[in-house]
Write a structure and sequence with these properties.
The protein is an alpha/beta fold. The chain has one domain: Aldolase class I (TIM Barrel). Helices cover 47% and strands 17% of the residues. The chain has an 8-stranded parallel barrel, surrounded by 8 helices. Helix 6 packs parallel to helix 8. It binds pyridoxine-5'-phosphate. The site of pyridoxine-5'-phosphate has 19 residues, from strand 8 and helix 10. Pyridoxine-5'-phosphate binds next to strand 8 and helix 10.
Length: 246
């Protein structure tokens, strides 16, 4: 069964829009996480960014207390974040590139260039019993380098697929790229997740990509939740994912 990890960053985005700098305020990411789980989500993802624009430190500790499925901490590979992860002990971390000026995570990690540092972080996480995923573009050299780091997972960046969705030729090319990368990763013993830009409209078109374990989806679910409620939004996404083979 294809699993759904719900990224709850934008619950915190809404709270910070009104309550930035305070220790309280609504909506509460931890309550949202519990509702996602009640609706059948298989995991909860939160990205603690260096600029703390949405998720705050107190959120990740609260999430660690309440999440009963799997907690995925998205983070940059920096000494600060590695220290937090080692203390927090999420079930898995997903290492992402981070730039202050970006709207959201814009590209994949350059694992080829950062291989030594990523190997070291993978080793430290493995010693602490934390799984590691690397967020990468579906490029052969990146997949190959990811397999050398010791990380157990990659998360394939579906941003280009989502961006090109309206153009049939672009969509087909991106699907082929994702499928080849997933085959390659699977052959190298990596588990394959995917995410970024997936939504209720483009999800079904992604399902031909083989070997997927989990999708990480945020913005579209939190957006829909404003009109349907979070549990309904999660259930509707799970229904779209249900036809995935295996
Ligand atoms: N996966 C990763 C690695 C991400 O950085 C993000 C965005 O925070 C997502 C998945 C979710 O993307 P979206 O909000 O577009 O669903």
């Amino acid at each position: 069964m294809l699993k759904l990890g719900v990224n709850i960053d934008h619950v915190a985005t809404l709270r910070e829009a009104r309550y930035r700098g305070r220790q309280d305020g609504e909506p509460d990411p931890a309550s949202a996480a519990r509702q996602c789980e009640a609706a059948g989500a298989h995991g909860i993802t939160a990205h603690l960014r260096e600029d703390r624009r949405h998720i705050q430190d107190r959120d990740v500790w609260r999430l660690r207390e309440v999440v009963q499925t799997r907690l995925n901490l998205e983070m940059a590979n920096t000494p600060e974040m590695v220290g937090i992860a080692l203390r927090l002990k999420p079930d898995i971390i997903c290492l992402v590139p981070e730039r202050r000026e970006e709207l959201t995570t814009e590209g994949g990690l350059d694992v080829v260039a950062g291989e030594t540092a990523l190997k070291e972080t993978s080793r430290r996480m493995a010693d602490a019993g934390i799984e590691v995923s690397l967020f990468i573009a579906p490029e052969p050299a990146q997949v190959e380098a990811a397999a050398r780091t010791g990380a157990g997972f990659i998360e394939l960046h579906t941003g280009a697929f989502a961006e090109g969705f309206a153009n049939p030729a672009h969509r087909a090319a991106e699907l082929a790229r994702l499928s080849r990368a997933s085959e390659q990763a699977h052959g190298l013993g990596l588990q394959v997740n995917a995410g970024h830009g997936l939504n209720y409209e483009n999800l079904a078109a992604l399902l031909p990509v083989p070997h997927l374990v989990e999708l990480n989806i945020g913005h579209t679910i939190i957006s829909r939740a404003i009109t349907t409620g979070l549990e309904t939004a999660v259930r509707q996404m799970l229904t779209l994912m249900a036809p995935y083979p295996g």
